[in-house]
Predict the 3D structure of the following.
Amino acid sequence: MLKTAFFTLLSLAIAIGGGGGSVWYALQAQSGVGAISIGQWTAFPEIGTQDADPYSKARVAREGVLALGKAEGLSFIAERDAAGDELQRQCDYRIEGSFPTARFWTLYAADQSLSVVDTGKPRLAALQSYQVLRQPDNSVIIAVGNRPAPGNWLLTEGFGRMYFVLTFYDTPIASSTGLSDVTLPRIVKAGCNA
Amino acid sequence: MRRLLHAILLGLLGAGIVHIVVLLLVPEFTERDAWSRLATASDLYKMTRLDAEAGGAPVVKSVDPLFYAAACRFDLAEGIVRIKAPGSVPFWSVSVYDRNGHNFYSFNDHTATDSKLDTVVLTPAQMIDVRRELPEDLQGAIFVEAPIEEGIFVIRAFVPDDSWKPVVSQFLEQSSCELQDY
Protein backbone atom coordinates (compact mmCIF):
# COMPACT_ATOMS: atom_id res chain seq x y z
CA MET A 1 0.00 0.00 0.00
CA LEU A 2 2.71 2.40 1.09
CA LYS A 3 4.73 1.35 -1.95
CA THR A 4 1.88 2.20 -4.32
CA ALA A 5 1.51 5.60 -2.74
CA PHE A 6 5.26 6.19 -3.07
CA PHE A 7 5.31 5.31 -6.76
CA THR A 8 2.25 7.44 -7.46
CA LEU A 9 3.88 10.38 -5.71
CA LEU A 10 7.13 9.80 -7.63
CA SER A 11 5.29 9.83 -10.96
CA LEU A 12 3.44 13.00 -10.05
CA ALA A 13 6.62 14.72 -8.86
CA ILE A 14 8.45 13.91 -12.11
CA ALA A 15 5.45 15.00 -14.18
CA ILE A 16 4.81 18.33 -12.49
CA GLY A 17 8.43 19.20 -11.72
CA GLY A 18 9.78 18.12 -15.07
CA GLY A 19 6.95 19.66 -17.07
CA GLY A 20 7.02 23.01 -15.31
CA GLY A 21 10.82 23.16 -15.19
CA SER A 22 11.24 22.42 -18.87
CA VAL A 23 8.82 25.21 -19.84
CA TRP A 24 10.71 27.65 -17.62
CA TYR A 25 14.02 26.57 -19.17
CA ALA A 26 12.72 26.85 -22.73
CA LEU A 27 11.44 30.39 -22.10
CA GLN A 28 14.78 31.56 -20.64
CA ALA A 29 16.78 30.61 -23.74
CA GLN A 30 17.55 33.47 -26.13
CA SER A 31 17.51 31.41 -29.33
CA GLY A 32 14.51 29.40 -30.30
CA VAL A 33 12.00 28.33 -32.86
CA GLY A 34 11.21 30.76 -35.65
CA ALA A 35 14.61 32.49 -35.62
CA ILE A 36 16.31 33.61 -38.83
CA SER A 37 20.08 33.99 -38.72
CA ILE A 38 22.14 36.09 -41.11
CA GLY A 39 25.83 36.03 -40.21
CA GLN A 40 25.99 36.80 -36.49
CA TRP A 41 22.61 38.47 -36.50
CA THR A 42 19.36 36.79 -35.47
CA ALA A 43 15.81 38.02 -36.01
CA PHE A 44 12.39 36.71 -35.09
CA PRO A 45 10.14 37.99 -37.89
CA GLU A 46 7.13 36.07 -36.57
CA ILE A 47 7.39 37.11 -32.93
CA GLY A 48 4.37 38.91 -31.57
CA THR A 49 2.03 37.83 -34.36
CA GLN A 50 -0.80 35.33 -34.41
CA ASP A 51 1.36 33.00 -36.55
CA ALA A 52 4.09 32.72 -33.92
CA ASP A 53 4.89 29.37 -32.36
CA PRO A 54 3.62 28.62 -28.82
CA TYR A 55 7.05 29.27 -27.29
CA SER A 56 7.25 32.78 -28.77
CA LYS A 57 3.68 33.46 -27.66
CA ALA A 58 4.46 32.39 -24.11
CA ARG A 59 7.62 34.54 -24.10
CA VAL A 60 5.73 37.58 -25.39
CA ALA A 61 3.10 37.11 -22.67
CA ARG A 62 5.60 36.52 -19.87
CA GLU A 63 7.94 39.39 -20.67
CA GLY A 64 5.35 41.95 -21.69
CA VAL A 65 6.94 42.53 -25.09
CA LEU A 66 5.15 44.63 -27.69
CA ALA A 67 6.97 43.52 -30.83
CA LEU A 68 7.45 45.78 -33.86
CA GLY A 69 4.85 45.32 -36.58
CA LYS A 70 5.79 44.44 -40.15
CA ALA A 71 5.18 47.98 -41.41
CA GLU A 72 7.28 49.38 -38.58
CA GLY A 73 10.53 47.48 -38.78
CA LEU A 74 12.58 44.44 -37.97
CA SER A 75 15.16 43.95 -35.20
CA PHE A 76 18.29 41.84 -35.40
CA ILE A 77 20.24 40.81 -32.31
CA ALA A 78 23.90 39.75 -32.27
CA GLU A 79 25.45 37.99 -29.29
CA ARG A 80 28.71 36.79 -30.89
CA ASP A 81 31.42 38.32 -33.06
CA ALA A 82 32.67 36.93 -36.39
CA ALA A 83 35.08 34.59 -34.60
CA GLY A 84 32.23 33.09 -32.59
CA ASP A 85 33.16 34.62 -29.22
CA GLU A 86 30.54 36.19 -26.98
CA LEU A 87 30.40 39.99 -27.13
CA GLN A 88 31.90 41.65 -24.05
CA ARG A 89 31.37 45.18 -22.82
CA GLN A 90 35.08 45.58 -21.98
CA CYS A 91 36.14 44.80 -25.56
CA ASP A 92 36.45 47.02 -28.63
CA TYR A 93 34.73 45.95 -31.84
CA ARG A 94 34.45 47.09 -35.40
CA ILE A 95 31.12 46.75 -37.18
CA GLU A 96 31.65 47.06 -40.90
CA GLY A 97 29.80 46.38 -44.10
CA SER A 98 26.75 47.45 -46.00
CA PHE A 99 23.25 47.68 -44.61
CA PRO A 100 20.07 46.54 -46.40
CA THR A 101 17.46 48.93 -47.74
CA ALA A 102 15.46 50.79 -45.13
CA ARG A 103 14.33 54.34 -44.44
CA PHE A 104 16.78 54.39 -41.58
CA TRP A 105 18.28 52.07 -39.02
CA THR A 106 19.36 52.28 -35.40
CA LEU A 107 22.10 50.35 -33.67
CA TYR A 108 22.55 50.08 -29.93
CA ALA A 109 24.59 48.12 -27.42
CA ALA A 110 22.40 46.23 -24.98
CA ASP A 111 22.80 44.34 -21.72
CA GLN A 112 21.32 40.95 -20.79
CA SER A 113 17.77 42.30 -20.61
CA LEU A 114 18.19 43.89 -24.07
CA SER A 115 17.83 47.42 -22.75
CA VAL A 116 20.47 49.93 -23.75
CA VAL A 117 23.83 49.82 -21.95
CA ASP A 118 24.08 52.49 -19.28
CA THR A 119 27.10 54.59 -20.20
CA GLY A 120 26.86 56.95 -17.24
CA LYS A 121 27.37 59.84 -19.68
CA PRO A 122 25.04 62.03 -21.71
CA ARG A 123 26.09 60.14 -24.84
CA LEU A 124 23.84 57.15 -25.51
CA ALA A 125 25.23 53.78 -26.52
CA ALA A 126 23.26 54.13 -29.74
CA LEU A 127 23.74 55.32 -33.31
CA GLN A 128 21.37 55.86 -36.19
CA SER A 129 21.85 55.95 -39.93
CA TYR A 130 21.29 59.69 -40.48
CA GLN A 131 24.30 60.53 -38.33
CA VAL A 132 26.87 58.02 -39.61
CA LEU A 133 29.71 58.74 -42.01
CA ARG A 134 29.80 56.50 -45.04
CA GLN A 135 32.58 55.05 -47.18
CA PRO A 136 32.68 55.88 -50.92
CA ASP A 137 30.89 52.57 -51.62
CA ASN A 138 28.10 53.49 -49.15
CA SER A 139 29.23 50.95 -46.57
CA VAL A 140 29.69 51.95 -42.93
CA ILE A 141 32.49 51.32 -40.44
CA ILE A 142 31.60 51.75 -36.78
CA ALA A 143 34.12 51.60 -33.95
CA VAL A 144 32.70 50.24 -30.69
CA GLY A 145 34.49 50.86 -27.41
CA ASN A 146 34.83 53.15 -24.42
CA ARG A 147 37.53 55.36 -25.95
CA PRO A 148 36.58 57.95 -28.57
CA ALA A 149 37.37 56.90 -32.13
CA PRO A 150 37.44 58.86 -35.38
CA GLY A 151 34.61 58.28 -37.83
CA ASN A 152 31.61 56.55 -36.32
CA TRP A 153 31.89 55.76 -32.64
CA LEU A 154 29.48 53.70 -30.55
CA LEU A 155 30.21 54.25 -26.87
CA THR A 156 30.03 51.26 -24.53
CA GLU A 157 31.02 51.03 -20.90
CA GLY A 158 31.37 48.47 -18.15
CA PHE A 159 31.94 44.74 -17.93
CA GLY A 160 30.03 41.62 -18.80
CA ARG A 161 28.04 40.32 -21.70
CA MET A 162 26.82 42.63 -24.39
CA TYR A 163 24.43 42.39 -27.32
CA PHE A 164 24.09 44.53 -30.40
CA VAL A 165 20.57 45.34 -31.51
CA LEU A 166 20.23 46.54 -35.10
CA THR A 167 16.74 47.66 -36.14
CA PHE A 168 15.65 48.58 -39.64
CA TYR A 169 12.61 50.82 -39.88
CA ASP A 170 10.11 50.91 -42.73
CA THR A 171 11.99 48.26 -44.64
CA PRO A 172 11.04 45.77 -47.36
CA ILE A 173 13.08 43.06 -45.61
CA ALA A 174 10.44 42.83 -42.87
CA SER A 175 8.29 40.86 -45.28
CA SER A 176 9.69 37.36 -45.16
CA THR A 177 10.42 37.15 -48.90
CA GLY A 178 12.85 40.05 -48.59
CA LEU A 179 15.03 38.22 -46.07
CA SER A 180 16.57 35.69 -48.44
CA ASP A 181 19.31 37.82 -50.03
CA VAL A 182 20.09 40.24 -47.24
CA THR A 183 23.65 40.77 -46.07
CA LEU A 184 24.34 42.39 -42.72
CA PRO A 185 27.57 43.98 -41.42
CA ARG A 186 30.29 41.91 -39.83
CA ILE A 187 31.31 42.27 -36.19
CA VAL A 188 35.08 42.01 -35.71
CA LYS A 189 36.83 42.11 -32.35
CA ALA A 190 39.54 44.80 -32.26
CA GLY A 191 40.91 44.17 -28.78
CA CYS A 192 40.07 43.95 -25.10
CA ASN A 193 41.06 45.87 -21.97
CA ALA A 194 41.20 42.91 -19.66
CA MET B 1 12.34 -2.57 -9.82
CA ARG B 2 9.91 -2.92 -12.68
CA ARG B 3 7.42 -0.86 -10.79
CA LEU B 4 9.99 1.91 -10.25
CA LEU B 5 10.75 1.96 -13.97
CA HIS B 6 7.04 2.01 -14.65
CA ALA B 7 6.56 4.94 -12.28
CA ILE B 8 9.42 6.92 -13.87
CA LEU B 9 8.17 6.32 -17.41
CA LEU B 10 4.69 7.35 -16.38
CA GLY B 11 6.19 10.46 -14.76
CA LEU B 12 8.07 11.41 -17.93
CA LEU B 13 4.95 10.95 -20.02
CA GLY B 14 3.10 13.15 -17.53
CA ALA B 15 5.93 15.72 -17.74
CA GLY B 16 5.39 15.94 -21.49
CA ILE B 17 1.69 16.57 -21.01
CA VAL B 18 2.31 19.12 -18.26
CA HIS B 19 4.89 20.88 -20.46
CA ILE B 20 2.37 21.35 -23.26
CA VAL B 21 -0.46 22.36 -20.93
CA VAL B 22 1.67 24.89 -19.02
CA LEU B 23 3.07 26.33 -22.27
CA LEU B 24 -0.41 26.91 -23.67
CA LEU B 25 -1.72 28.31 -20.39
CA VAL B 26 1.10 30.82 -19.78
CA PRO B 27 -0.44 33.49 -22.09
CA GLU B 28 -3.86 33.01 -20.41
CA PHE B 29 -2.73 33.39 -16.83
CA THR B 30 0.32 35.64 -16.90
CA GLU B 31 0.16 38.86 -14.96
CA ARG B 32 3.29 40.26 -16.50
CA ASP B 33 2.09 40.75 -20.08
CA ALA B 34 1.91 44.16 -21.73
CA TRP B 35 -1.81 44.58 -21.02
CA SER B 36 -1.41 43.93 -17.28
CA ARG B 37 1.61 46.22 -17.04
CA LEU B 38 -0.26 49.02 -18.78
CA ALA B 39 -3.32 48.38 -16.61
CA THR B 40 -1.30 49.04 -13.46
CA ALA B 41 0.13 52.21 -15.01
CA SER B 42 -3.03 53.83 -16.31
CA ASP B 43 -6.69 53.57 -17.23
CA LEU B 44 -8.40 52.66 -20.49
CA TYR B 45 -8.27 55.32 -23.27
CA LYS B 46 -5.33 57.04 -21.69
CA MET B 47 -2.07 57.53 -23.57
CA THR B 48 0.80 56.34 -21.41
CA ARG B 49 4.45 56.87 -22.17
CA LEU B 50 6.33 53.58 -22.52
CA ASP B 51 9.87 54.96 -22.50
CA ALA B 52 11.74 55.77 -19.32
CA GLU B 53 11.98 59.47 -20.28
CA ALA B 54 8.69 60.29 -18.59
CA GLY B 55 10.13 59.15 -15.25
CA GLY B 56 10.14 55.76 -13.60
CA ALA B 57 11.00 52.44 -15.13
CA PRO B 58 9.85 51.73 -18.68
CA VAL B 59 6.42 50.11 -18.65
CA VAL B 60 7.05 47.76 -21.54
CA LYS B 61 10.40 46.17 -22.33
CA SER B 62 12.71 46.63 -25.30
CA VAL B 63 11.94 50.06 -26.60
CA ASP B 64 14.65 51.38 -28.92
CA PRO B 65 16.68 54.04 -27.03
CA LEU B 66 16.35 56.38 -30.02
CA PHE B 67 12.57 56.11 -29.90
CA TYR B 68 9.84 57.47 -27.73
CA ALA B 69 6.64 55.47 -27.47
CA ALA B 70 3.18 55.79 -25.98
CA ALA B 71 0.34 53.32 -25.69
CA CYS B 72 -3.31 53.25 -24.76
CA ARG B 73 -5.63 50.37 -24.01
CA PHE B 74 -9.10 50.29 -25.52
CA ASP B 75 -12.23 48.16 -25.46
CA LEU B 76 -14.21 48.11 -28.71
CA ALA B 77 -17.25 46.68 -26.91
CA GLU B 78 -17.79 50.24 -25.63
CA GLY B 79 -17.58 51.87 -29.07
CA ILE B 80 -15.09 52.86 -31.73
CA VAL B 81 -11.83 54.44 -30.66
CA ARG B 82 -10.07 57.31 -32.40
CA ILE B 83 -6.37 58.06 -32.06
CA LYS B 84 -4.97 61.40 -33.13
CA ALA B 85 -1.65 63.13 -32.73
CA PRO B 86 -0.95 66.66 -33.93
CA GLY B 87 2.32 67.98 -35.25
CA SER B 88 4.95 66.32 -37.35
CA VAL B 89 7.99 64.30 -36.36
CA PRO B 90 10.73 62.69 -38.49
CA PHE B 91 9.14 59.26 -38.33
CA TRP B 92 6.26 57.65 -36.53
CA SER B 93 4.76 54.23 -36.73
CA VAL B 94 1.81 52.66 -34.98
CA SER B 95 0.74 49.13 -34.14
CA VAL B 96 -2.51 47.63 -32.95
CA TYR B 97 -2.19 44.67 -30.60
CA ASP B 98 -4.85 42.35 -29.24
CA ARG B 99 -5.31 41.57 -25.55
CA ASN B 100 -2.45 39.03 -25.61
CA GLY B 101 0.05 41.43 -27.20
CA HIS B 102 -0.15 39.97 -30.71
CA ASN B 103 0.48 42.54 -33.38
CA PHE B 104 -2.13 42.34 -36.08
CA TYR B 105 -1.97 45.72 -37.81
CA SER B 106 0.76 48.29 -38.25
CA PHE B 107 1.48 51.24 -40.47
CA ASN B 108 3.77 54.27 -40.56
CA ASP B 109 3.68 57.94 -41.51
CA HIS B 110 4.07 57.20 -45.24
CA THR B 111 0.66 55.54 -45.19
CA ALA B 112 -1.14 58.54 -43.74
CA THR B 113 -2.29 61.66 -45.56
CA ASP B 114 0.16 64.53 -44.96
CA SER B 115 1.92 62.33 -42.39
CA LYS B 116 -0.83 63.24 -39.90
CA LEU B 117 -1.72 60.56 -37.41
CA ASP B 118 -5.50 60.22 -37.42
CA THR B 119 -6.89 56.74 -37.17
CA VAL B 120 -9.98 54.88 -36.03
CA VAL B 121 -9.99 51.34 -34.67
CA LEU B 122 -13.28 49.48 -34.92
CA THR B 123 -14.78 46.02 -35.32
CA PRO B 124 -16.12 44.80 -38.70
CA ALA B 125 -19.70 45.20 -37.39
CA GLN B 126 -19.06 48.81 -36.35
CA MET B 127 -17.43 49.40 -39.73
CA ILE B 128 -20.69 48.54 -41.47
CA ASP B 129 -22.53 51.03 -39.24
CA VAL B 130 -19.99 53.78 -39.77
CA ARG B 131 -19.86 53.22 -43.53
CA ARG B 132 -23.61 53.73 -43.83
CA GLU B 133 -23.17 57.37 -42.95
CA LEU B 134 -19.57 58.47 -42.70
CA PRO B 135 -19.25 61.48 -40.39
CA GLU B 136 -17.60 64.53 -41.96
CA ASP B 137 -14.64 64.67 -39.59
CA LEU B 138 -13.74 61.00 -40.04
CA GLN B 139 -13.18 61.35 -43.78
CA GLY B 140 -9.42 61.69 -43.62
CA ALA B 141 -8.90 59.03 -40.97
CA ILE B 142 -7.32 55.62 -41.52
CA PHE B 143 -9.76 52.87 -40.55
CA VAL B 144 -8.32 49.80 -38.86
CA GLU B 145 -10.78 46.91 -38.81
CA ALA B 146 -10.02 44.71 -35.83
CA PRO B 147 -11.92 41.53 -35.02
CA ILE B 148 -11.22 42.01 -31.31
CA GLU B 149 -12.66 43.78 -28.30
CA GLU B 150 -9.85 44.65 -25.92
CA GLY B 151 -6.61 45.82 -27.45
CA ILE B 152 -3.55 48.05 -27.20
CA PHE B 153 -2.60 50.89 -29.53
CA VAL B 154 1.07 51.88 -29.63
CA ILE B 155 2.66 54.97 -31.22
CA ARG B 156 6.41 54.98 -31.74
CA ALA B 157 8.26 58.11 -32.76
CA PHE B 158 11.90 58.47 -33.81
CA VAL B 159 14.21 60.85 -31.94
CA PRO B 160 17.19 61.39 -34.29
CA ASP B 161 19.11 63.46 -31.74
CA ASP B 162 18.69 65.45 -28.53
CA SER B 163 17.37 68.54 -30.28
CA TRP B 164 14.28 66.59 -31.37
CA LYS B 165 13.43 65.43 -27.84
CA PRO B 166 11.02 68.28 -26.95
CA VAL B 167 9.23 68.04 -30.31
CA VAL B 168 8.79 64.28 -30.18
CA SER B 169 7.77 64.41 -26.50
CA GLN B 170 5.15 66.98 -27.32
CA PHE B 171 3.88 64.90 -30.22
CA LEU B 172 3.24 61.99 -27.86
CA GLU B 173 1.96 64.11 -24.95
CA GLN B 174 -0.64 65.71 -27.20
CA SER B 175 -1.78 62.47 -28.76
CA SER B 176 -5.30 61.47 -27.82
CA CYS B 177 -7.06 58.15 -27.61
CA GLU B 178 -10.78 58.44 -27.06
CA LEU B 179 -14.14 56.84 -27.65
CA GLN B 180 -15.84 58.34 -30.66
CA ASP B 181 -19.55 58.85 -31.28
CA TYR B 182 -20.84 57.76 -34.65
User: Anything to note?
Assistant: The mean pLDDT of chain A is 87. Strands of chain A lie at 36-38, 41-43, 73-78, 91-97, 104-110, 126-128, 140-145, 152-155, 163-169, 186-192.
